[in-house]
Amino acid sequence: MNEKLNTTTEHQYIDTIESLSNFYNENKEISWMAFDTEFVGENRYRTLLCLIQVATVNGIYLIDVLKVEDISLFLGFITDPKVEIISHAGENDYKILYNNYKIIPTNIFDTQLACGFIGLGYPTSFFKVLVQELQVKLTKSQVVTDWEKRPLSTEQLHYAIDDVLYLKTLRDKIIEKLEGSQKKEWMYKEFEVWESRDYYQTNPYFHFLKGNQSQSYNQHQKILLYRLINWREEKAAELDKSRDKVLPKATISLILKQSKTKTFTFENNRILERSSIKKFIPELKKIIDQPHTEFEINYVHTKKTKVFKSALTENADTILINLAKRKSMIEGIAPALVLNKTYLNQLRKNKDKPNWRKTFLGETMIAWLVDSPQLDVNISDNKIILSKK
Description:
The chain is an alpha/beta fold and 389 residues long. The chain folds into 3 domains: 2-200, Nucleotidyltransferase, domain 5; 204-302; 311-388, no CATH class. It contains 21 helices and 10 strands. It has helices at 17-27, 72-78, 91-101, 111-115, 126-134, 154-165, 167-178, 182-193, 197-200, 204-208, 219-239, 243-246, 249-258, 270-273, 281-289, 294-302, 311-331, 335-338, 341-349, 356-361, 363-371; strands at residues 2-3, 12-14, 32-40, 48-56, 59-64, 84-87, 108-110, 136-137, 375-380, 383-388. It has a 6-stranded mixed sheet, sandwiched between helices. A hairpin with a 2-residue loop joins strand 4 (48-56) and strand 5. The radius of gyration is 25 Å and the shape is flat.
């Protein structure tokens, strides 16, 4: 094994619009680009992008986003369908680019996702993959570091370069292993999920309704939740603070709980008066006291709360998921990519939508997963027979 301790910092450091323009001109004919990002997300509404590392056929580039405010010349490569964008665990990177710049990748190759199709498991760290596939061992000394501080240290530069230096070689090795296999087609289908606008658009109100308490919310509580979530989004964006710093989930739950059978009041509420939201109480009181609108009533009526299943149905789901996982391991695909409860819910909502998992698991397994039947289990003569009740 090669003990990889990067001692070279050969790269172009881009910290002006002129150097970014040079980068674009050097690379406007490329067919692939490897990239990674370094950022600071703690206690912020919008993640602060600090550095973008890029590798192309022409070399290594480090784009200082704190110095170059307009990075549209770089972003154009991300949205260019003629340029394959190579990443490892790029989901967060693409979400940051969407949230900050509203762009969506169009031709990705994510080596972490791809490793799930060659028997390496998912998710697998870049460090482990390089050891196993390329016999390269990186240093991990800068996993936790301050990427906002300038100038960047030599160690930070080494670490940043390593994140993209091997991506193209790793990508080629994976493609070689999958050549001629149907898993290669399925892998690209999985990449397409990250190339859809729907993947990046989330509804925080809907996510809150997935909680266990939401099942018992009445109409008034659901409308309050809708208002509080919207206010929190707007205030967090205005202050550039994390949502929980502005209005913690626990505080939202407390307000909703105390609003079930009576009008909520902030007066003489020791918990809220001592909390960080004290300065927002006048604003919150105003939105809570407003009468319900027709739009709000109709909106919360269409948003379903979490549906709780019987123990028998949950048991059937567990059995079927475990069978799917076993098939995945036999075929060398990471079980986490094939089926979990999130994918199962998506499958039931989109019964007729094409999906590579349907081909892999087969019509019978898919039909049972969609119907969520109660199962009869018959154990005899060294056999276990499952059948629908």
